[in-house]
Request: fold
Amino acid sequence: MVKTDLEKLWKEYKDQGCTDAREQLITQYMSLVKYAAGRMVMNLPGSVEVDDLISYGTFGLLDAIEKFDYRRGIKFETYAYVRIRGSILDGLRALDWMPQTLRKKAREIERTYRELEARYGRSITDEEVAMELGVDKEEFDRLVMDISRSSVVSLDDFYYSDTDEEIPLRDMVADQGIPGPEAMVQFEEKKVLLGQAIDKLPDKEKLVVSLFYFDGLTVKEIAQVMELSSSRISQLHTKALLRLRSRLVKSKDALIS
Reply:
């Protein structure tokens, strides 16, 4: 559908309340829901069906269509994708399939990455993390795989500081509703911190993050590019997130101290 036709649909629905225009908008943008569901299902347990994710995401799409103001000149796809993904995450969190013991292990690994990197001033190997945790490399790999199959990161999740203080991930993201100079400076600082944290990742983890978040590839596509299994890509992705979360907590603590 061409841009002028979409603009017409938005005007008909928002200005005239045309329900037919609303249905056409839903049909037009359902591909966003399917895309989000397709990317997220790859890192979830086999018991989670992609149709369930599409169902959760559709609520986010409907909410986005209701709240979107086409007059502001913001791209709807960008606006809607955040809400679609958030709606899927809400649905997944309601399932609450991740055991509390596994959540505790994930926090323990994050803390271990943070402490060892602070101690040695470099990126830490899996073997060093495993040794610090008191497990062998195989057990560490199994643990990371379990976490990768059971965890979903969202802005409603928490980082954990050295004192176990819960820090909402959303606090690490600039409030786009506050376009003042101070907010813009903070947003740029956070982008720099995230970029620096990504640069310090091991090469394979850095490539997975780049292909997944910046190039928009699915786990299956990344596996083909890197000639690895999908499960191995999920494992690398999880380890990258654990490292990044630990480093961002450290950076946040330094910024506010």
Notes: The radius of gyration is 20 Å. The chain has two domains: 3-95, 100-256.
